Amino acid sequence: MVNRLDRAQPYALGLFRVVIGLLFACHGAASLFGVLGGAMGGGTIEAGVWPGWYAAAIQLVAGVLVLAGLATRTAAFVASGSMAYAYFTVHQPEALFPLQNSGETAALFCWAFLLLVFTGPGALALDRLFGARGAEAPRSEEKPSPVAA
Predict the structure, then answer these.
(1) How far is Cα 72 from Cα 2, in angstroms, rounded to an integer?
(2) What is the pLDDT of residues 82-134, one digit of tens each?
(3) CA-to-CA distance for 23 and 67, rounded, in angstroms?
(4) CA–CA distance, 81 with 68 (Å, rounded to integer)
């Protein structure tokens, strides 16, 4: 049973990446274009307004990149940082805990993206397709590098 779960791990991680990326991109699209109910229940965020418009742009772009699995670790790092910023500047001053300050979504997105920074994109990602062309498997007589890049 454990062996089967281990073999499915890259696909589960890939599905996790797709769902998180889609949800994040939807937040950005709602704020920028007024779709899916719009920003905070209706409308859009005025272009260039700090920090809302920039956060929405990061949500849309990073969400699409993570969804596609393209530059996943970099996009996830930026997305995680933006959600940490949102939590500590918008939510945390209201109350200490996420349940008290309505910061659950920001906290969950922050940690989900941070997980993707360390795990990578999983299966079925464009990162793997483009990375596979230039990557060469080490020969058996070569010692692998102690630090993977």
Answers:
(1) 27
(2) 999 999 999 999 998 999 999 999 999 999 999 999 999 999 999 878 875 44
(3) 9
(4) 20
DSSP 3-state percent helix, strand, coil across the chain (nearest 5): 70, 0, 30
Q: pTM to 2 decimals?
A: 0.81
Q: How many CB atoms lie within 10 A of CB 84?
A: 17
Q: Distance (Å, rounded) from C-alpha 47 to C-alpha 28?
A: 13
Q: How far apart, in whole angstroms, are the C-alpha atoms of residue 77 and residue 20? A: 13
Q: Which residue has tokens 């062996």?
A: 3
76 touches 86 (CB < 8 A): no
Q: Which of 17, 15, 44, 49 has its CA nearest to residue 28?
A: 44
What lies within 8 Å, CB to CB, of 110 at 6+ separation is: 80, 83, 84, 87
